[in-house]
Amino acid sequence: GGSSGGRARALEIMAANPGKFDAEHILVVCRLHHFPDGALVLYEQAGLYREVVQHYMTENDPTSVVASCRRFGDRDPNLWLTALNWMASRDQIPIDDVGEVLKEVEEKDLVPPLMVIQILSQNPGAHLSLIKGFVTSALQRDKASIDKDSALIAQYQEETERMRGEVEALRSEGRIFQSRNCSACQQPLDLPSVHFMCSRDGQPCVFHKRCLGDSEHECPLCGEEHQRAINMRSSQHLVERSAVHESFFRQLNASEGRGFETIAEYFGRGLFT
Fold first, then answer.
1. Which regions does the record annotate with the repeat CHCR (predicted)?
2. Which of 102-116, 178-192, 205-219, 233-247 is least confident?
3. Domain ranges of the chain
4. Which residue, 252, 251, 268, 260, is CA-closest to 126?
5. pTM of the model
6. Which of 103, 171, 192, 262 could tie 255 with a disulfide, CB 3.0–4.6 Å?
7. Alpha-carbon gap, residue 170 to 87, rounded angstroms
8. Beta bridge partners of 195
């Protein structure tokens, strides 16, 4: 019971004196007297932000759920995921509210896109339009990655041809090592020294063993270039990814009500990662 003025005064006292009361006792009193505002103050003071969100879920108040996530989400980002699961479980998904939740889940990268799709697809009333923006954004990020990779592909192909020429020369021609100075310290060579088959600026790479440290199995000057050569093996995969988007949209347009399944299939096969 209690008047509205008395409850307002109680809220002021609780808010102004955090930690000065027996929280468990006060919480029991709030529940006995149906005083949820008091319980919410206690939850917030104790850092029980999930309980705040859960309260509004119980009240079927999606707007307040989102407002609480907005307020406490920086301290507990997973509140957004809790809200998404709850909204997807409702008979009627609140379109406007779930749109903001999806935006935060995406920006905070809380879960992979496939999981978001699986969560929403469990609701028979979920329409493809609900997730269109989310999927489009995920594809745009992937396209930006593909564009960046395409520039690398061209570079890799050019370097591959050059390396093939060098490999063929190593197979068919002898090589005389005439370097007199260490490629690292530039001091005159003495034994023990290590010669690599690569070269820099037309000079073979050769080092004092002491200058190599733990890198005696790989040239420290050309190691990064060697790693790029290894990466070239995946360049064909990068080319193939650029065709995935067109195939995806063709299949999505022909899905006839199976849009969620089509999206889940593509994300599940890792075609957008």
1. 1-96
2. 233-247
3. 155-235
4. 260
5. 0.55
6. 262
7. 65
8. 206
